Amino acid sequence: MTISEFFNMGGYALYVWGSFGVTVLFMVIEPVIVRGGRRATLQRISRIVRLDAEERR
């Protein structure tokens, strides 16, 4: 088996390498999205706690 045969994947190279590419893309994007959601949730909780403390005064 040569390198070109390996990268050609028996004619299925576009499907195989495209699948790997999409998987890697989502594995990179998902933590970024989760981090943003976490940050927004923490800000929302902070705002609720602050408003609750102001109401108790």
Distance between the termini: 77 Å
Q: Could you give the order of the helices and strands?
A: HH
Q: Which whole number gives the mean pLDDT?
A: 92
| Biggest sheet statistics | none
What's the total number of strands? 0
In DSSP terms, counting alpha (H) and pi (I) runs of 4 or more, how many helices?
2
Q: How many domains? A: 1
Radius of gyration: 24 Å
The dominant shape is: rod-shaped
Question: What is the helix content?
Answer: over 70%
| Strand fraction | under 5%
Show unreliable segments.
none
Task: Assign the structural class, choosing from mainly alpha, mainly beta, alpha/beta, alpha+beta, or little secondary structure.
Answer: mainly alpha
Tell me what you see in this structure.
The chain is mainly α and about 55 residues long. The chain has one domain. The protein is about 90% helix and about 0% strand. The protein has helices at about 5-10, 15-55. The longest helix has about 45 residues, at about 15-55.
Topology:
Elements: H1 3-8, H2 13-56
Keywords:
2 helices, 88% helix, 57 residues, mainly alpha
Structure summary:
With 57 residues, this protein is mainly alpha-helical.
